Known about the structure:
20 strands, Purple Acid Phosphatase, chain A, domain 2, alpha/beta, globular, 11 helices
Amino acid sequence: MSHPRRPSFQRNLNPLRDYVGLLNWSAHSYYRAYLAEQRVSPRAPIYKKVISLLGMGFVRAGLRFAKALFAKRCGFQDYDYRDGESGVFPLMTDPLGIQDSTAAEEVRLSLAGDWGTGTHEAAAVAEGILQFKPHFTIHLGDVYYTGDATEINEHCLNTPARSSRYETIEWPHGSLGSYALNGDHQMHGNGDGFYRAFLPTLGIGGSRKQIEKSQKASFFCLRNRHWMIIGLDTGYNSVGLSSIFSMCKLEDVFLDWLHNQVHPKDFAGAIILLGHHPYCSAFERGYVRPATQLKGPLGDRCVLWFWGHEHRFAIYGKYKSLAGIPAFGRCIGHGGMPVSLGSPNPKSKAPLVLYDNRRYGNLDGAFVGFNGFANLAFVGSKLTVEYFSLPGFLQPNYSLLLRETWECKAGDLHGAGISMIEDGLAQANPDLNAAQR
């Protein structure tokens, strides 16, 4: 039974502070999930944590972790091309793509990353997205702690899956459809929750219960005459041995799909990439392997690339690894987790232009930043992107931080303007226009 819709700050939701200090290690994710299940705060005294480890619940949690550690990953799913599936969906207001979009038609799409926490902030982000009345919504990956079916149900599908003191929330579904990417935290649970619980609720349709054409795989394409959006799965090979040896390698199944179904080299419009892991980073680490693999199917054309994984909002100028594609990076991994603060690494070569280092709140001695999301509006060959954040601790409104416009000209991506709306954002490059050239 779903809970009645109330403003997020009035609801009994997961506190943001319970996710402070969560590491990207599988063992730590399972440990923190166990503490949450036992209703023990990660800030509790050590003796309380030790006591919580003495019961049979810890044994069961250990068995779940062992199963995830040694069991085979959920199989990498593909589309059934013999049944007419292609993984290519229309980026237009005609949900089945029978009629191409007109020059005056506006197609609205919202993005958020690292959203699946069930926190007040995640719920507020969802409410802000719905105020935009998007035709499509896309989650850039990560449901916490381990992305299993229980957490998918409670943090994304508004479906209680266990006895809990907190209410559940729902990923905001666009009026025409919704999609999602895989992340490393889903793969901590071997991908079962993402593939078997979340994917069946995604695709073309007015709600998660009314899907007309489903997203059968962890990758997809939205396309119209001027714009092509390609969703990548950088999460599948991001944990365990696959992470050590492949560094977020894109699966061959995906690359075959690009060549045989999408044909990005032949596309006469501009290309936008969506992925979970960052191509470059001025704060942590970048993952260049996917960009290297994409060089073949995409060539040297420059793309606009949105990613998450890092819990922050950051804008990058054009970046190109030694063997990768050129891209303008946008980190929007601030959807639902405590947002990281701090200065960029002075040794980083990532072309950071702008980032949000404002303090949102003090969570038991840990300062965190502002959660937020991005809204995209496509009108013919023009794209406007607006980046929003929550305005203050558990407040009901939203702040417009930045607005940028892009244009597709002769199949190439061209920056048409960028302006900072909110005071207080940190500029690593005094020339804001460097974010578009």
